[in-house]
Amino acid sequence: MLSQDTLTRAEARVPRYTSYPTAPHFGKTIGPAQVADWYRAIPECDPVSLYVHVPFCAKLCWYCGCNTSIATKYQPVHAYLETLVRELGHARELLGRKAPVSHLHFGGGTPNALSPVDFARLADALHALFEIEPHTSFDIELDPRTLDAKMAWTLAAAGVTRVNLGIQDFDPAVQKAINRIQTFAEVRTRLDELRVAGISNFGVDLLYGLPHQDESTIAATVDSVADLGASRVALFGYAHVPWMKPHQKLLEPEGLPGPEARMKLMQRAHARLAARGYVRVGIDHFARPDDELAVALKEGRLARNFQGYTTDGARTLLGFGPSAISAFRQGYAQNHTRLDEWRAGVEGKALPVARGRALAPEDRLRRAIIERLMCDMKVDLDAIAEELGLEEASERHFAGELARVDRFAAEGLCVREGGRIAIPPAATSFARIVASAFDAYLDGGEAKHSVAV
Length: 453
Prior knowledge:
about 450 residues; about 20% strand; pyruvate-formate lyase- activating enzyme; 19 strands; nine-stranded mixed beta sheet; alpha/beta; Arc Repressor Mutant, subunit A; 15 helices
């Protein structure tokens, strides 16, 4: 039986901290002109990371919290590609050079909503506009239900190095409840096609907290994923936010697990992943010991950005497509979320930026602290301050924050010695809670976020 204090903490609503300050605190004071200046200020020798958003799916999954729409015809998808290529071209003009790319990530929606011909055209445009080498990490999120052998060969020819499959759960009752039917045999066939084309490195996304899940079904799903040979597994807690995504209400008649059942689902999945040889990376990722994500964790190089945990050390991430977020040294910029507003911005020959956030020195300090807690499960406040060229950052500067940390320590969520904070392995799932002690913008904004565990 889990304690009530543990369950209460698990139900707290805090950010996932893929950025700091987080997206709800972006504002309209940052617009296209300022972000264009940020583009021009990127040092010539710096590599950049690219994120390309494809906001279309063939069918709506009822758990989905992504920015996407259902494409019943292909013409809107093709038209989207035309605008996206123009947005990429405008970025290239602002950069004034063919910038080297360290990481390239396609997300959605469903990137394989693009036809093989259009995907190849987009890949050609990226290679023409940016310096993408054979060793550049090129990841793409895929829906196995709409993948085929022709697309597998197209992905390989474009230089894709890793695919990530949306699985969520293999149990038929769960799949029916979430409106996402895909059998183990179908997924295995798609993976065979990818391997034949030359892409063998893949990860999967799983969810806990869905209707009809129990400890035996989620363990069976983990075993199936391990049997397929996944090198990485992202195990996310389902974020039920129907006030933001009304279609999620369709899950409610099926019944959602309560806090205790949800916690047990997570614990059972974690235990099974460990038994199958996966190393825990951060709060919600698992990787084979020889996977570069596990190696980065071991070597202290793990990073966190809008795609989650990553080995990407680039200081600039450029996001393309509606809702995509870019990260610069100076701050963050998010594109218009609505497709028509994003298109109008691109066609107006300006960056389609809707809002953003400039970073103050204090933001950079807190961002670095939060990232190390989320990645390493430990942080030395004074070492972070020294690295950033700031004054001492422990007891005097963060008296209120450390008082909160001490309350978390009393609950067993962390330990503190002066300005050094560590999260023990048993409390890793609560890292978001501990990190929130350093979030100066959190108070009053909890309703915007998902539950912590």
